Amino acid sequence: MAKRVADLLVDVLVGAGVQRIYGVPGDSLNGITDSIRTRENIQWVGVRHEEAAAFAAGAEAHLTGKLALCAGTCGPGNMHLINGLYDCQRSRVPVLAIAAQVPSAEIGSGYFQETHPEQLFAGCSHYCELVSQPEQMPRVLEIAIQTAIARRGVAVIVIPGDVALRDAVEQQPGLRFAEPKPTVCPSDDELSLLAEVLNRSKKITILGGAGCAGAHGELVELAAKLQAPIVHAFRGKEFIEYDNPFDVGMTGLLGFSSGYHAMMNCDTLLMIGTDFPYRQFLPKDATVVQIDVRGEQLGRRSKVDYGFVGDTKTTLRALLPRLEQNQYETHLKESIEHYRNARQGLDKLASGDSDRTPIHPQYVASVIDRLASEDAIFTFDVGTPVVWAARYLRMNGKRRLVGSLNHGSMANALPQAIGAQVSHPKRQVISMSGDGGLAMLMGELLTLRQHDLPVKLVVFKNDSLAFVELEMKAGGFLDFATNLKNPDFTKIAEAAGLLGLRAETPDQVEPAIAQALKQDGPALVEVLVSRQELSMPPTITYEQAKNFGLFMLTAVLSGRGDEIIDLAKVNLLR
C-alpha cells in the first residue's frame, strides 16, 4: 500500500526526533492525525485551545533544546496558534507548526474558513511555505525543520487537507545527518583587543543573559579574573545565579537595587549573551563591551564601544588565558554588600505574619521556593507572578524557569506547564498563575485531567489585573477596567477533576502548598494575596514619582481615599 503524504510527513517528524504534537484536531488535519493514531513512536497531545498548543510546544523546546511541534486546523485553528508562536519566535526556541489549509482547489475562492496562513505567520516565523503538491514532500518539511533548528525559532508548514491524503511520490525521508553544533569565536585580533580593553579597566560589571547557558564555569572564572560582579537578566537567571559568589541579582523592571547599583557604578560594562531591552537601566557613561553569537544584536539596546560575535563558552575559553588578574577589589566588594542588604530587604517583605491579610504574595513565592523539589520546573504568568518568581525562586543548576519573558503574553503559565510536564513526566512542575492569566485559558485545566498531568498550580488571587493597575498608577492614571469578578477557583478545579485547596491566611499557605505538592495528580492552590502590593523597580524616576502622586490626588478627589490609606498600610507601615 502506497504511503500518503501525511504518512511521509509523520515519518519525517519521527526521524527528526519529534515525540509528540500538541494541537486540536479538525477535518483538514484528519490525514495527519489518522497517521499518528496508528503509531507508538509519536503522541498526539490534545489541548483545548491552539494557543495553548503553541505555548506548550515552546516550553518543551526551551527545556529540551530540541524541535517541538504544534498543529492547528484550517482558518480559526491555525489563527489561534499565532500568539503562542510569537512567544516561541521571540524566545528563540525551535518550534514547527503545521497549519492545515482548506481544500487546495478552493484556495482563493473565499471558501469556508479560508485564510492565507503564509501571510498570517510571516511576522512570527523564519520560514512559512505551502505544500501544494505531493512532490514537495519531504523536501519542504525538511527545510522547515532545519530552519527552525538552525535559526532557533518558528517554521510553519501549510498543507491542505486533500494534499495530505494524496499518495506520496517519495517514500522515505531524505534528511540523514545529525544536527550541526558549530562553535563561534571572535578572531585572534578581536580577542586581543577585547583582552586589552578589560585588562585596562578597574570597575567592571558583567551583565549576562540566556546566551550564557552552558557556560557557567567559564563565566564565574571570568568574574574572578576581572573582580566583576555579575548582574543577570531574567532569561539568564537559571543559568547564572546558582553557585555564583559574584552574582548580585537582577536589574530592570523586575529586578532590585543591587543589580542596578553594580551597573551604574562601573566604568566598563561587559554584556554577554543578552538582549536586555530596558535602555533606562543601562549606564550612559561607562565603556560598553558586548559579546553575542547574533551579530545583529550588537548595539541595538545601548551604545556599544566594542562589539564581538561569538558564543559565550567558546569566546570566554579563548579569552581567559589573555586576561590579567584585576587587583581592584572595591567595586566587587561594594556590589556584593549592596546585594546582601537588598536581599535582606526582599526577604523581610516575604513575611508570613499570622495576623496579616490579605497575604503577602512575596511570602507565597518564598514558600513555593522552599517546598519545591531540587529539580522543579517553574512556569509563571506575566503580571505580578513574574515579579515574585524573579525575586524569590532560587536556582541551583537543576531547576528550570519558563515564562513569556520577551513576548510578555498573559495566560502563558498553565499551557507552558503542560508542555513541561508532558516532556518531563518525572519532574515536579509548578505553575505560578495570576487570576487574570488563569481565567484567560482556564479550559486547559481540563487538559491536565485528560492527560493525567500532575501539574501544581498556585493561583495568586487578588481579583484584579494588578500589574496593569500598577502601570496605570505609575503613569498618573486612575486605574480603570482592572477589577475582576472571579469565581472560587478551587471549585472550578474540583469540577475539572483536580484537587482544589484554598489559603486565606498566612498560616494556611504552607500546609496547602505542601499538600498539593504531595498529590499524585494535578492540584490547584488558590491564595488570597494583597492587591495593593507594590513591586518596586530598582530605581524610581522623578516622572514616575510625580505620576504616582497625581494618581493619589485623583483617587482622593474621586472618592477613593480609603484605597490610598490601604496602599499606605500595605507598603509603608509594615
Topology:
Elements: H1 5-15, E1 20-23, H2 30-37, E2 43-46, H3 50-64, E3 68-72, H4 76-79, H5 82-91, E4 95-101, H6 117-120, E5 127-130, H7 139-151, E6 154-160, H8 161-164, H9 188-199, E7 204-208, H10 216-226, E8 230-232, H11 237-240, H12 257-264, E9 268-272, E10 287-292, E11 306-309, H13 312-319, H14 330-349, H15 361-371, E12 377-380, H16 384-392, E13 400-403, H17 413-423, E14 429-434, H18 435-440, H19 444-450, E15 456-461, H20 466-474, H21 489-495, E16 499-503, H22 506-518, E17 523-528, H23 542-557, H24 561-571
Helix pairs in contact: 1-2, 3-5, 3-17, 10-13, 12-14, 15-16, 15-22, 23-24
List unreliable stretches of 5+ residues.
Answer: 544-548
Give the total of beta strands. Answer: 17
> Strand order within the widest sheet?
2-1-3-4-6-5
Structural class determined from secondary elements: alpha/beta
Helix share bin: 40-55%
**Helical element count?**
24
Give average pLDDT, whole number. Answer: 92
Distance between the termini: 74 Å
Bulk shape = globular
Task: Please state roughly what percent of the residues sit in beta strands, choosing from under 5%, 5-15%, 15-25%, 25-35%, 35-45% or over 45%.
Answer: 5-15%
Please tell me how large the radius of gyration is: 25 Å
Would you kindly provide a written description of the structure presented here, covering whatever features stand out?
The chain is α/β, with parallel strands linked by helices. The N and C termini lie far apart (74 Å). Mean pLDDT is 92; it is low at 544-548. Helix 15 (361-371) runs parallel beside helix 22 (506-518). The relative contact order is 0.10. Strands 2-1-3-4-6-5 form a six-stranded parallel beta sheet, with helices on both faces. A six-stranded parallel beta sheet has the order 13-12-14-15-17-16, with helices on both faces.
